[in-house]
Amino acid sequence: MKEKVVAVNKDPDGNILSVKTDRGQVYRVEQAIKQVESGMLTGIEVVSRNGQQFLKAFSGTPENNLN
User: Fold this and answer.
1) DSSP-assigned beta bridge partners for residue 55
2) 3-class SS of residue 8
3) Exposed e or buried b for every residue in 11-48, given b needs 16+ CB within 10 A?
4) Nearest one of 45, 63, 67 to 55, comparing CA atoms
5) CA distance readout (Å), 14 to 1, 10, 18, 65
6) pLDDT digits (tens, 9 = 90+) for 11-54
7) Among 26, 35, 30, 28, which residue's Cα sits nearest to residue 53?
8) Separation CA 36–CA 57 (nearest Å)
9) Above 60 in pLDDT, residue 64?
10) What is the 3-state secondary structure (H, E, C) of 12-64?
């Protein structure tokens, strides 16, 4: 069943360490990327920059970075 991201955990530099879903599940970034790519995690998208994948809010939203 699909889950939606509702919160993020960041390190002191602002890098996302993990995300929390509406079902209370916590995924590390690597796990969250795999979940998004498999269609099981919604509310965020995976983008690639300089060969590295990262998470962000959907394009077109007022803020593209997850807070």
Assistant:
1) 46
2) strand
3) eeeeebeebbbeeeeebebeebbebbeeeebebbebee
4) 45
5) 30, 5, 12, 10
6) 998 888 899 999 999 999 999 999 999 999 988 889 888 999 98
7) 30
8) 12
9) no
10) CCCCEEEEEECCCCEEEHHHHHHHHHCCCEECCEEEEECCEEEEECCCCCCCC
- Give the tokens for residue 47: 């983008």
Give the position of tokens 């269609």: 39
What residue type is 27 in one-letter code?
Answer: Y
Structure tokens given for 67: 């807070």
